[in-house]
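Internal ticket - ligand job 144, zinc ion:
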Amino acid sequence: MSKNNCKPHNFKAHKTDFAGEPNYKCSKCEIIVSGWEYTWYQRGIDHGKEIEEEIEEEIEEEKDFINMFDCLDEYAQKADGLDDAIVGIVSRCGFPPVLCYSQQKIIEILMDRDGMDYETAQEFYDFNIVGAYVGEGTPMFLES
Ligand SMILES: [Zn+2]
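stdout (structure tokens):
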């Protein structure tokens, strides 16, 4: 560990500077910073923690998502690139469970992500998404 470069610094109030403002010294690498530098450093650390928490949450959500697929039979098909439009799994006696997509969310994805206007997105949805039969595991589409 090079001097003045430990991570994270462990700042403690050190002494006051010429203007009477406290400065802070790292107890590990002995770097001394001003009050405002200390404040911004701590904010950076807090922000880093927030980002870490967000990433962990996303990982948890992703795990839930993967678990959801685990309870589906292997022949349940996905509509490519439309994971965000999945609203759940549809079950019916005598049939394998299949994924259910929201028509509204698909249209939104086609418009926002692919830049289609509403009419084109609707047409694409009708012909290429709802109109695609991929066997017994073909997804269902909720039009509400
Ligand atoms: Zn340090």
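Auto-summary: The radius of gyration is 27 Å. The chain has a mean pLDDT of 86.
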